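Hi everyone, sorry if this is the wrong subforum. Our group has a chain we'd like a structural model of before ordering constructs, and none of us has done structure prediction before. Sequence below.
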Amino acid sequence: MNSIEIHNSFSKDAMNNLFPEDRADKFFNALYGDAEEGAYDISFNFKGLEHHKLIFEFQLTQRPGKCLACNLTYGLPEVFSRHPIINIKGMIHKIDTKLPDGIRCIDWTIGNTDEVSSNLHVIPVTILINE
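Answer:
Right subforum, don't worry. Here is the predicted structure as tokens:
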């Protein structure tokens, strides 16, 4: 497996196309009826390749004047795994199409929220791939 080719497939631009910046506003609009009610921005980032696993993470970054309390983010893995605006299954499908020939996504898991700091929480997403 060509690690460089995989890393190039998930550049910052590619990740912004996969999970556009405005998706957080759409998510909060669906939850609260107003995107301004959201306490954080959401981005999706590629962290690396480890033993037949692609490691990604959702990064939840506190919005100015808002509070990124852990009680707002700890239940999100379950919500993100099935919410149609987050559309993780669709994202996995798009990731699958970006992989080099012969490499495919086999399965995926979403981990627990990790409080990196008071203004940054992350939710890991691990994708098992064949080789």
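For your construct planning: The CA atoms of residues 61 and 120 lie 5 Å apart. The mean pLDDT is 90.
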